[in-house]
Amino acid sequence: MTDSLIFAIPKGRILDEALPILRAGGVHPAADFFDAKSRALTFASENPDLSIIRVRAFDVATFVAHGAAQIGIVGSDVIDEFNFSELYAPVDLGIGKCRLSLAMPKDAPPIDLSASHIRVATKYPTITRQWFASRGIQAECIKLNGAMEIAPLLNLAPCIVDLVSTGRTLVENGLEEREVICDVSARLIVNRAAFKLNPAIPAMVEAFREAVAVPA
Ligand SMILES: Nc1ncnc2c1ncn2[C@@H]1O[C@H](COP(=O)(O)OP(=O)(O)OP(=O)(O)O)[C@@H](O)[C@H]1O
Ligand SMILES: O=P(O)(O)OC[C@H]1O[C@H](OP(=O)(O)OP(=O)(O)O)[C@H](O)[C@@H]1O
């Protein structure tokens, strides 16, 4: 007899790319999960003892780290930002690929590496502070939850740290990428304690590992 499992899936842009991987990993949400008009947050699945929650990307990590859900899918940006010790991220799913970068207005001078302090608008204050600290600069982070790209134009901060994929959002807002801080992709995450206690979880991790493995 094993405990039932809760799988946390992010609502946003990873969702569409994640659906084929979920199926290949053997997770089959019930039909109402695909009803775009549904306001439900918890869904059954066709798998025995497995239900699904659909939450914001940043909250997937929080639910799984605290054991409220046992397994989930989330970007490595979120994993790195929280750095929860209870999270184990055993499989790179190869989706949601982008990078976390430092960007500035395209006519702005380079960052003054001899400066002791800089103001940065970002959704990623922890990663940003660490990256600047390793260069001897104290970053004062102004936390935004989206639309970071307008912060320099409105003098909220001279630079931003945000996700970049095609680069189009930066260009359309008069910014340019100056430094890549880290590459990002979506990962399967599990709660470490649950992984040890419930044998269904390592089996599920293995199924996802096989689902994304590149054939030799
Ligand atoms: N431009 C992008 N290209 C590829 N992957 C991205 C891109 N932007 C975000 N991601 C990935 O998708 C995840 C979710 O991003 P998304 O934009 O859907 O959520 P959000 O709007 O940041 O969060 P919220 O749910 O709080 O509105 C990010 O954490 C990142 O891993
Ligand atoms: O380089 P690009 O291909 O233009 O992608 C980058 C944009 O994608 C993400 O935003 P998203 O579209 O998820 O909206 P958000 O600002 O609401 O998070 C990110 O925050 C950038 O704004």
UniProtKB/TrEMBL annotation:
A GO cellular component annotation in the UniProt record: cytoplasm
UniProt enzyme class: transferase
Domain ATP phosphoribosyltransferase catalytic: 56-207
Protein name according to UniProt: ATP phosphoribosyltransferase
Organismal lineage: Bacteria, Pseudomonadati, Pseudomonadota, Alphaproteobacteria, Sphingomonadales
Keyword Oxidoreductase: no
UniProt domain comment: Lacks the C-terminal regulatory region which is replaced by HisZ.
A single GO molecular function term of this UniProt record: ATP phosphoribosyltransferase activity
Function statement: Catalyzes the condensation of ATP and 5-phosphoribose 1-diphosphate to form N'-(5'-phosphoribosyl)-ATP (PR-ATP). Has a crucial role in the pathway because the rate of histidine biosynthesis seems to be controlled primarily by regulation of HisG enzymatic activity.
